[in-house]
Amino acid sequence: MQISEINAVVADEFEAVNTEISRELSSDVPLVEHIAEYIVSSGGKRLRPLVTLLTGSALGCRASSLITLAAIIEFLHTATLLHDDVVDTSELRRGKPTANHKWGNAPSVLVGDFLYSRAFQMMVRIGDMAVMERLANATNVIAEGEVLQLMNVRNPDLTTEDYHKVIQGKTAMLFAAASGSAACLASDSDTLRQAAHTYGIELGLAFQIQDDVLDYSGNAETLGKNAGDDLAEGKMTLPLIHTLKHCDADTRQLIRNAIRQGGTDDLAPVLAAVQASKALDFCRGQALQHRQRAIDALADFPASPAREALIGLAELAVDRSS
């Protein structure tokens, strides 16, 4: 399925989410509203709120609170992006200058805080303790994941296990919050709630591994960021972890030095080493395994267009070039 076909399943609800997002961005402080609108409307696919809408729809939820929940998920995601770009000193996201590059670090961090606090105000309006518990726990885990990633910047000794711990916290947990909290609104079944959570985790892992593959195989025009950004920031991701295990001593030292120093001076030989080690094929295989686990988690969901769209979204998470 194409993303347009997936969106079409919940097109009316998606439009309602966009309306709610615009309404909730209002602020008496013009700079807050300006930066928030810039980052929220900067061209993202809004996959996480889409997961919320599709999960709720697949489980028969028609409550207006599902729309609010999807907007909350987008606000939480946007807040993490604002903070991430400051931490990473990024200058490009989704093909546009980052907010911190345009307005500076301090306004970006504070507007991220505004989006977090607005999201929690909206959670209170929903008034479902199971939803609030999931979202509060997810927000905490995401913050821990970001700190863990920061601790491992320029660390060439990062293990596969540590890598998975980072991406489960910083990426997969919000997908799980999107699907799991929607299931809380839709069903009292612990089995279905756990299945929705598992779907989100596995979808997020597949999505992030593919993202890390694209960093060594894509280009700025399709990615909306510069290829080699992870290397420039000194981040060890799965392609490099695999390459280090399957290259000669000289290449291993080259990669270790490149990670310790950051920058892209050694990008060309590192890319060559990644290709020679078949790391991208290995990583794609890992992403495909997570994708299949996500699809398998939907086995108990009733048949519906929304369930098929969730399957299509899992497939798209790996079969994409941006």
Automatic annotation (TrEMBL):
* GO MF annotations, alphabetized: all-trans-octaprenyl-diphosphate synthase activity; metal ion binding
Q: Which Gene Ontology biological process is one annotated for this entry?
A: isoprenoid biosynthetic process
Respond yes or no to whether keyword Iron-sulfur is given for this record.
no
Q: What is its EC number?
A: 2.5.1.90
Q: What CDD domains does the annotation carry?
A: Trans_IPPS_HT (cd00685)
Keywords for the protein's UniProt record, in alphabetical order: Magnesium, Metal-binding, Transferase
Q: Which domain of life is it from?
A: Bacteria
Write down the required cofactor(s): Mg(2+)
InterPro entries with a match to the protein in the record: Isoprenoid_synthase_dom_sf, Polyprenyl_synt, Polyprenyl_synt_CS
Is Nucleotide-binding among the key words of this record? no
Q: Which Pfam families match?
A: polyprenyl_synt
Catalytic activity reads: 5 isopentenyl diphosphate + (2E,6E)-farnesyl diphosphate = all-trans-octaprenyl diphosphate + 5 diphosphate
- Physiological role: Supplies octaprenyl diphosphate, the precursor for the side chain of the isoprenoid quinones ubiquinone and menaquinone.
Please state which protein family the record places this protein in: Belongs to the FPP/GGPP synthase family.
Q: Which PANTHER family match?
A: ALL TRANS-POLYPRENYL-DIPHOSPHATE SYNTHASE PDSS1 (PTHR12001:SF69), GERANYLGERANYL PYROPHOSPHATE SYNTHASE (PTHR12001)
UniProt-recorded name of the protein:
Octaprenyl diphosphate synthase
Q: Which organism is it from?
A: Natronospirillum operosum
